[in-house]
Amino acid sequence: MSPSKKSFYITTTIPYVNAEPHIGFALELVQSDAIARYQRLLGKDVFFGTGTDEYGQKILEASQKEGKNVEDYVDHYAQKFLGLKDILNLSYDNFIRTTSKENITAAQEFWRLCDKRGDIYKKIYRGLYCVGCEKFITEKDLMNGFCALHPSKKPEIVEEENYFFRLGNYKKQLLEYLSNEKATFPEWRRAEAIDFVKNDMEDFSISRDKKRFSWGISIPEDDTQLMYVWFGAFVNYISTLGWPNSKGIFEKFWLGGEKVQTAGKDMVKFQSVMWQGMLMSAGMPTTDTIVYHGFITGEGGIKMSKSIGNVINPVDIVKEYGTDALRYFLLREITPFEDSPFTMERFKNSYNANLANGLGNLASRILTLSEKYLNKCPEIPEKSDFTEYFSFFEKFDIKQAVDYIWKEIGELDKFIQETEPFKVIKADEKKGKELISDIVLRFYRIARMLNPIMPEMNILLKKLIKENKKPEKPLFPRKD
Question: Is residue 418 part of a domain?
Fold first, then answer.
């Protein structure tokens, strides 16, 4: 991290709008939101971006399958993803759509910059094409004749003339970029990126023939081809900042700020190699840090995927359990860098044990004591020492940060059991009030730490503590 930089930019990848939002992308959104909120606590000027990827062959095919005009189709699903802002209580600053005029203009200008550098050329290519991945793949990407990432889609043989990007021109610069240990988290993803650059990297196709591929961004000065969906989509990371038309925010956050991107573990070669090579070609600064999370798996450890159809809709969980309960589970029970299972049984068990019986019960006990025995909330110090807690965010290990909070919750609960303040105050009122005041202040510190994790609960608990009131109803009703 670069503590000297006062501005901080974080962005998620942008999902395809070919189905309802699922819990896998909710994970990336909530992780990014927690990081953004943490940076704001440090006093940084933060820009948090996300959006939707709306071009590509599989989106066109999905719209046709539903019998919808493709523009209406992407509008419909973009609204679903926009709705996640309220559902997940996200604090992002801009939502960019790749079909927006701003992104189209930016993608075409970015193309011109790479072309001017001499990094775009045309050639005939023949190979296996996976519609699910929206890219050409090789034999080693196959499993039993199908794409390993899309086992229900058989790749097709495609031969056509496309534009290619000279990624090979940037091998040396990419290895130098990846030599920085902070370029990629976790460390083994950086090793994966380095291995790809050294052994498998090659120039990649950045256009498709308009006769076969009709839903995409037009290429400058060539109306026979459309921009490869990945090329145009990458540019969202800077078009969301107003580039190239309004450069104030872009200069502040991309040129002068710390830049962090979050992505799934299958994005390493795209985000850490291809996108960084494109930035080098365009003469722009590379991303400072890319943080890769694992997959959320379902029953049997199978990756959740829209194409497989085993996804969980976050909207359904929030309706029953609330936003903060889902945020808690995603940020603590899902490990930040490895695959983790998400089943409703596991979610419910965690909810009852750690929220209903944990934080919820503790809040009720403490606030009942304070309301009964204290005339008002004790004076709250302006600052607390969060050095250890913040250290986990510096490593992007949000799970450890939440574990730290729950360690504090457990220790405070144990302290109450051991000191029995309700007995102390009956024997010695002054000593009892001092003990309860100390407990309230320790609990307020816990409430403060919830800010990036469970923002609604952070606000509610601080309000109740300051008003010296117990909750009118259980904060987390137990689920049977």
Answer: yes
Residue 243 forms part of a structural domain: yes
Q: What is the pLDDT of residues 222-268, one digit of tens each?
A: 999 999 888 999 999 999 999 999 889 999 999 999 999 999 999 99
Strand partners, 142: 147
pLDDT at 50 over 50: yes
Together in a domain, 288 and 363: no
Q: Judge whether residue 2 has pLDDT over 50.
A: no
pLDDT tens digits for range 123-178: 998 778 777 776 677 777 777 778 877 777 778 887 889 999 999 999 999 999 99
The residue among 293, 323, 356 that closes a domain is: 293
- What pLDDT does residue 312 have? 84
Residues 44 and 120 in one domain: yes
> Same structural domain for residues 270 and 349?
no
- Tell me, yes or no, whether 337 lies in a domain: no
Domain membership of residue 51 (yes or no) is yes
In the chain, the number of structural domains is 2
What are the residues facing 289 on neighbouring strands? 260
Res. 304: pLDDT tops 80: no
| Same-domain pairing of 39 and 187 | yes
Q: What is the CATH number of the domain that holds 398?
A: 1.10.730.10
CB under 8 A, 24+ apart: contacts of 279-285: 280/170, 280/173, 280/174, 281/113, 281/114, 281/117, 281/119, 281/165, 281/166, 281/169, 281/170, 282/110, 282/113, 282/114, 282/117, 283/113, 283/117, 284/238, 284/254, 285/254, 285/255, 285/259
Q: What's the token pair of residue 471? A: 């909750």
Distance CA 107, CA 238 (A): 10
Range of the domain at 407: 344-467
Q: Which residues contact 475 (CB under 8 A, 6 or more apart)?
A: 355, 359, 360, 363, 364, 457, 460
Long-range contacts: 471-476, Cβ < 8 Å, 24+? 471/363, 471/364, 471/367, 474/356, 474/360, 474/364, 475/355, 475/359, 475/360, 475/363, 475/364, 476/322, 476/325, 476/351, 476/355, 476/356, 476/359, 476/360
Q: What is the pLDDT of residue 3?
A: 45
